[in-house]
Amino acid sequence: MATYMVQPVKLVDVKAGQFSNGLNGHSATNGVNGTHGTNGIHEMKNGLNGYAEEKPEQATNPVEDEDLEIIEDVADPHCVAENPVKISFQDITSAAFLIKSGIQCTPCQRSHLSDMTGMELYLKKEFLQFTGSFKERGARYALLMLSEEEKRQGVISASLGNHAQGLSYHATRLGIPVTVVMPIAAPIMKIQKCRSYGANVIVKGESMSEAKKIAMSIGKRRNLVYINGYDHPHIMAGQGTIGLEIVEQMGMPDAVVVPVGGGGLIAGVATAVKAISPQTKIIGVESDKCPSFTRALEHGGPILTPNMATLADGLAVPTVGYNAFATAVPLLDKMVVVREEWIALAILRLVEQEKCVVEGAGAAGLAAIFSGHLNEFKGKKVCLLLCGGNIDTTIFGRCLERGLAAEGRLLRFCVTVSDRPGGISELCRELAALGVSIKDIMHERAWIRDIFSVEVKVVCETSDWAHSEQLRKVLTEKYSHVVFNDVPMAIAN
Fold it and tell me: Are the C-beta atoms of residues 23 and 93 closer than 8 Å to each other?
């Protein structure tokens, strides 16, 4: 396997005081306007490559209908199955030096959930990046490494949202034309964000695979550089800078838990962390609705894996990257697959305990802990990577309800009561006496055999698992016909 090495970076017109900073990017000083870090990103002139950042402008030269026709067998020269590229620690340190002026060094803080989980838990909050996810790191580095001619021609990519946003944001500020192809299933919020960042957005394709084919076909016709969102070597190196920050901020963790989609994030983070702290365990987490990396491990290489709709839409990649797989597998210690209910519960817990709003992919690491897959790290120092916070508002509400149901705090039941005056009100009094909050209630008579009875369907909220069990006991003793509609894994802890 080939090893991808970044060429030494030539510094252009960097004056004293223009950048004074270590790898962590806490106080990158802009010699142009005196602002700090990413606060001055909109007006900053990049002293590392002499390329001026500009205000967002809407993309020109819209794509014509004939450009959307798929050209079969268009190859990505950076992602070749027969000759996968493995990134090195030097690639990541080079990336860290280049992107530090335009990327947030996000906090890595001890979690309030430490006592609940029995671990010394730290949260790396990548959802605090400007576009809401870690994808900015790789996108910026890949853009900075383009030749001047490639920058002039522009770039194109296919993405479900987060990579598209990061690429759109940084390409526009670097003055590079950018086109993104997003499948029709992509969240509307993410599509609108990409347009607001100045990208030419094409919503086309029934799946991520089809959107990628369309993007690569357009790139071939228009001579645009296709930047794979998870398998391009520069993308992986950029994502790996998170690993450098984790070790710098919290020392040597016993384990780092990383959500896995296409594999670029875990490949970069594992390369960085293992180079500094070989004893640290690298744990990957996937949703059971899109276990592409797990299937690749079973198969011995990337393989097309049909994905189903999932709360962790950012992880829904049908085929993991060839470069990412080759880089990550030798460094991976464990792979975990979690159910959707655990992801919903993790989203709920992060909102309630940490006041953090994250998407499904960002909550996958905590879901792995709640599901009991990582009990061997009880009492140890564990870092969870909260990789993104771009969750659709309608999906967010459903996630919270699903999390409450998974925990047993939101119950739905059907009970048959007497169809006489006061029959339903008596049921409501019983619930009120228990301190149960009724969220929804309805009744029906037409489909009940006993014409003197009525079936009442109730959705209610309790304070905790014990409270729910008390409600079950009281209703079961009082009424002869009670049916509770539990989610598959209501839990007692």
Answer: yes
Total residue length of the chain? 493
d(CA 383, CA 369): 11
**Residue 321 pLDDT more than 80?**
yes
For domain 133-226, which CATH number applies: 3.50.50.60, 3.90.320.10, 3.40.50.1100, 3.10.180.10? 3.40.50.1100
Which CA distances in Å does 25 have to 21, 64, 102? Answer: 6, 42, 9
Residue 62 confidence (pLDDT): 59
The token pair at 394 is 């309608």
Q: Where are the domains positioned within the chain?
A: 89-129+233-402, 133-226, 410-484
pLDDT at 35: 39
Cβ atoms of 18 and 40 within 8 Å: the answer is no
- pLDDT tens digit string along 48-81? 344 444 444 444 455 655 567 777 778 888 999 9
Q: Which helix (H) or strand (E) holds 341?
A: helix 340-349
Check for a shared fold between 89-129+233-402 and 133-226. Answer: yes
CATH number assigned to the domain covering 410-484: 3.30.70.260
Report yes or no: 173 and 239 within 8 Å, Cβ to Cβ.
Answer: no
pLDDT > 80? residue 180: yes
* Neighbouring C-alpha atoms within 13 Å toward the C-beta of 291: 13
Q: Of 394, 414, 418, nearest to 475 (Cα)?
A: 414
Backbone angles phi, psi at 492, to 5 degrees: -105, 5
The predicted pLDDT at position 333 comes to 98
Hey, CA dihedral for 334, 339, 345, 351, is it positive or negative? positive
Output the CA angle 197-202-205, nearest 5 degrees.
Answer: 135
CATH architecture of 89-129+233-402: 3-Layer(aba) Sandwich (3.40)
Q: What is the pLDDT at residue 64?
A: 58
Single-letter amino acid code for the residue at 315: L
Residue 200: how many other CB atoms lie within 10 Å: 21
At residue 179, does pLDDT exceed 90? yes
Query: Using 50, 70 and 90 to split pLDDT, how confident is the model at 374?
Result: very high
**DSSP 8-state secondary structure symbol assigned to residue 69:** S
Distances (CA, A) of 135 to 55, 319, 450: 21, 18, 60
Confidence of residue 488 (pLDDT cuts 50, 70, 90): low
Token duo for residue 179:
């086109």
Q: Give per-residue pLDDT as tens, 75-110.
A: 888 999 999 999 999 999 999 999 999 999 999 999
Q: CB-based contacts of 20: which residues, under 8 Å, 6+ apart? A: 27, 28, 29
